[in-house]
Write a structure and sequence with these properties.
single chain, mainly alpha, two-stranded antiparallel ribbon, 6 helices, 105 residues
């Protein structure tokens, strides 16, 4: 599993999320999702902006870990775990990654 160590890097610099938002111009909600590891997609451009602002390499922000302890898994929330478990569609009961029918939009 890929871990996002943004909270660690910000803590080392004694920066807040707001400091990083000001420095990069990235939306606060995006920084918050990265900070709390509640996202499963990251823009390469945004990663580059974060690395420039924090004067670090990408491997200091993103790391791959084989095993994740239960506390970390819970903290990462449903956004990361939902990507790995399909959801039955409430309309047709088909199992899909995202339960949305074009007819129900």
């Amino acid at each position: 599993m890929i871990r996002i160590l943004l909270s660690t890097r910000l803590g080392e610099r004694k920066w807040t999320q707001a400091d990083l938002v000001r420095e990069t111009g990235i939306r606060a909600s995006t920084i918050n999702d990265l900070y709390h590891e509640m996202t499963d997609r990251v823009s390469l451009e945004q990663l580059d902006q974060i690395c420039k602002a924090l004067d670090c390499d990408i491997n200091e922000i993103l790391v791959r870990e084989e095993k994740i302890d239960e506390r970390t898994r819970q903290r990462m929330g449903p956004a990361r775990s939902a990507a790995n478990s399909p959801i039955p569609c409430p309309d047709c009961h088909a199992v899909r990654a995202f339960p949305l029918h074009l007819g129900s939009v």
